[in-house]
Amino acid sequence: MTRLAQLAPLLTGLTLAGCAAPDRGFVTADDGVRLFYRTIGDGPLDVVIPVGLYLERALAPLAAPERRLVFYDPRGRGRSDAGDRARATLDRQIADLEALRAGLGIDRMVLIGWSGLGMEMAVYTMRHPTRVIRLIQVTPVAARDEPHNQAAYAERARRTDQVALERVRERRERGAFAADPTGYCRALAEITGPASLADSSVIADVPDVCQFPNEQPDSLGPLFEALLGSFAGYDWREAIARVTVPRLVIHGAADAFPVEGSREWVPAGSNAGLLIIERVGHFPFLERPEVFFPAVEAFLRGDWPPGTERS
Questions:
Q1: Residue 175 included in any domain
Q2: Contact (CB, 8 A) for 139 and 118
Q3: Could you tell me whether strands 45-50 and 132-138 are parallel, antiparallel, or unpaired per DSSP bridges?
Q4: SS3 of 167, please?
Q5: What interhelical angle do 116-127 and 90-103 show, nearest 10?
Q6: Among 116, 138, 148, 311, which is least packed by CB within 10 angstroms?
Q7: Is residue 220 a part of any domain in this protein?
Q8: Does 49 reside within a domain?
Q9: Could you give the C-alpha distances from 271 to 7, 188, 203, 241, 247, in angstroms and in order?
Q10: By the 8 A CB rule, do 258 and 152 touch?
């Protein structure tokens, strides 16, 4: 039994009692693209969490009677419409979250952004500070693109079996996956996935996102090329220093992304704190849920979790 599976009954018993059944649907952006969402609970505090395809099950233990968890898939991801992937931009991502907020009748919300969405939710907060109550950035990409993200990509490549990766790609070139794009996606994930984890035993808890056509390489390739190109070379250090919304940055000490990149999200004098969790890579909610969830709960109550570094 995996660690999350062992912990889930306890967490569910503590937090899900009294919550409404999950609901789901679509909100339509201004260009007609439908954004998939799923909610858990109907409390007055809205907690909005992008990339639900990865996080719905993992972060469901945050449900509580006083909250409504709102998971959604950005355009071109998971169960949302793709639109024109070649025109994906950071500005479009921020506008889509605004459309979701308005479409669901949300006035103010807590945001939880993981990985690249940790950066995107910070940008939303910079542009719409009156709409955000609190922001949690979970193992986010760095506050500036260079040199930290480049170092992370190189480290992930170092941790990955490049010979095995090349063999899978060669098999595809020979037609092995011609009628099975899902199988090709899973073959790649099996090789690249462990590089994001400090504890490879939790790999079974990482969702099988390859089941969604949007998540397969031929779909994600053009989407990421356009999206990443729209903010290449970014540097948010000056802008984030002006944000007064309370922010908690959670960093895995064993993540490929260097801790220096997360520290730059917490400039001196800001209303922010950095929590470093030992023996954790890019998935702290899977690798050490017994540390992650109490820390998030403390922050949602208005406290800084024990061990948080304040600048």
A1: no
A2: yes
A3: unpaired
A4: helix
A5: 70
A6: 311
A7: no
A8: yes
A9: 32, 40, 34, 9, 7
A10: yes
Provide the pLDDT for residue 311: 78
Q: What is the number of other CB atoms lying within 10 angstroms of the CB of residue 88?
A: 24
Q: How many Å apart are CA 38 and CA 235, to the nearest integer? A: 32
21-45 b/e (C-beta count within 10 Å ≥ 16 → b): eeeeebbebeeebbbbbbbbbebeb
Please count the structural domains in the chain.
1
pTM over 0.85: yes
Q: Residue 238: give the domain boundaries.
A: 3-149+227-310
pLDDT along the chain (311 residues), means of 10: 42 42 88 97 97 97 97 98 96 98 98 98 98 98 96 97 98 97 98 95 95 97 97 97 98 98 97 98 98 98 97 78
Do 99 and 35 touch, CB atoms closer than 8 A? yes
Radius of gyration of the chain (CA): 19
CATH code for the domain of 139: 3.40.50.1820
Instruction: Tell me, yes or no, whether 208 lies in a domain.
Output: no
Contact 36, 215 (CB under 8 A): no
Q: Which residues on adjacent β-strands are paired with residue 72?
A: 37, 50
